[in-house]
Amino acid sequence: MxxxxxIVDDSPxxxxxxxxxxxxxxxxxxxxxxxGNGDEGLAVMNAHWVDLVVADLNMPVMDGFEMISRMRGDExxxxxxxxxxxxEGSGTKIGKLRGMGVTGIVHKPFSPEEILKAxxxxxxxxxxxx
Length: 130
What we know:
Elements: E1 3-8, H1 12-23, E2 29-35, H2 38-47, E3 52-55, H3 64-72, E4 82-86, H4 91-99, E5 104-107, H5 112-129
Parallel strand pairs: 1-2, 1-3, 3-4, 4-5
């Protein structure tokens, strides 16, 4: 059974780039869904099964911090692993993300290998928990 992934980023180009990297990764991908901000991301998660969220932080309407905070406060969504892909590099904000249970952080600009490493770590960790 493939990994259902939600990519949340306000840039269609960034969503497309991450999708392409994941499609070429050799990972067993189920469905990939997309959202342009945190509010849309939460709506997708409430309507469809998601195994992993790859999200930006700086987005209009609802940013990634708020989306992750709401996920962690929701009984159904709280345990979905999140990988943040962002230009954000502040140690304070990175610490806040870690405290929110963010599994991986990839800084933009990134290489395909950085995305795949973060995703593989999440998949490996989830497999070892079961």
